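Supplementary notes for students who missed Thursday's class. We covered one full example, reproduced here. Read the sequence, then the structure, then the short commentary at the end.
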Amino acid sequence: MTYLHERNDWPHFTWRLDALAERLSAVRYQQGLLHGRMRALGYPLQEEATLAALTEETVKSSAIEGEVLNPESVRSSLARRMGLSVAGAAPIDRHIEGIVEMMLDATRNYPEPLTNDRLFGWHAALFPSGRSGMQKIRTGFWREGGMQVVSGAVGTEKVHLEAPVAERVEAEMAAFLAWFNGSEEIEPLIKAGLAHLYFVTIHPFEDGNGRIARAITEMCLARLENSAQRFYSMSSEIREERRSYYEILESTQKGRMDVTDWLIWFLGCLGHAIEKANALTGSVLEKDAFWRRLKEKSIGVSDRQKTIINRLLDAFEGKLTTEKWAKLTKSSHDTALRDIQDLIAKGILKQEEGGGRSTAYCLVHTGKHPQV
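Structure (token representation):
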């Protein structure tokens, strides 16, 4: 078996532009529509949409690796670093802080060159304890052993690629960074797809390669859009399409240096991610319209009520009960019940079908309730 990095013409990727033209045009059009829509909003709403997209990106990038992060903790960490206030902020641990640091550095400092030190910093941030699960790893250094990319449960793993031997990693990464930071004219969307494939092929670290590859992709997209604001999540879509991701990664690694099929898949995945961004940005637009309607009708709410209403508008899953209201707002059961009854009287909340101890409430105009 010959992998890409073992070919004589590595790393000189080629592609058929005529086969990519239609998808490139479609993704560019979708990007333009999304950014045009967001520009029509005020800056605070753009920042809120960015917070939602970065939260999704961070959580789903880790989920691809089988790591479950608390979305509320990720959102709180991002919001604090972005200078945004989030009511009912969840506790944050060192691990989540490190992942958030990497993602924000990639997207906010996108014009800066990508360097060894920067990548080492990202790697150290991903593993602040120097461990990946129970295994001790060297952070901030290139790997010393061999590396395979596998998927599947223990005992039934499937090998998708065998990375270059450790002795080659330093030289391979020097070549990668020279290419990434170079001035060669490559269509930016194509470069984003190539950068992901190139980095994953080298797999320079003991662990965290997938998350860093996706951060590099986000950095490329931020450079393309010349904006640190992110309105969609590529990692969320890769997770949805992870089976086809590993399939195309494997076939590309075992093929020739013409990576057109990989780029077709990458552009398709990116296009789907931008389409789904409408759900995230739609939530922001809905929230803005809701509060404007209340202001126009001179309907006032307390800070506690606003906290819960915003959670409802964020479309979290679950059911809102009096007990959960009290827990979320750190208030008594009686206070929670008064808050709920007041919002029912104002036509903002309604009681869902059923009753008794499981009585639940939702917004009148959306029927949404939060995850608690």
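Commentary. Confidence is low (pLDDT under 50) at residues 367-372. The first helix runs from residue 17 to 39. If anything here is unclear, bring it to office hours.
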